[in-house]
Amino acid sequence: MSRLALFALVVCLLSVTAAVVSFANGSWLGVVWVLLTGLSSNMAWYYFRRDRLRARTAAGPQAR
């Protein structure tokens, strides 16, 4: 897993935690954290798939 995918995954997990804490405290600021969760999870998925595709194409046709 690449460093960018790992960082995006960490941000995703932290923003989920922040959203839960915000909603538990009765703050509607948790909506912003939920939006950040969606953005960071998409970024993590993108970087993970991009690195996996690069590794597959670098290995050549015999790896498929």
What would the principal axes of the Cα set say about the shape?
rod-shaped
Helix and strand content put the structural class at mainly alpha
Radius of gyration: 16 Å
| Helix-residue proportion | over 70%
Describe the structure.
The chain is mainly α. The chain has one domain. The chain is 81% helix and 0% strand. The chain has helices at 3-24, 30-59. Helix 1 runs antiparallel to helix 2 (30-59). It is rod-shaped and about 55 Å long. The chain crosses the membrane at residues 28-48. Keywords: Membrane, Transmembrane, Transmembrane helix.
A few lines on this structure:
With 64 residues, the chain is an all-alpha fold. 81% of the residues lie in helices and 0% in strands.
Task: Describe the secondary structure blueprint for this structure.
Blueprint: H1 3-24, H2 30-59
Question: What key phrases describe this protein's structure?
Answer:
mainly alpha, 81% helix, 0% strand, rod-shaped
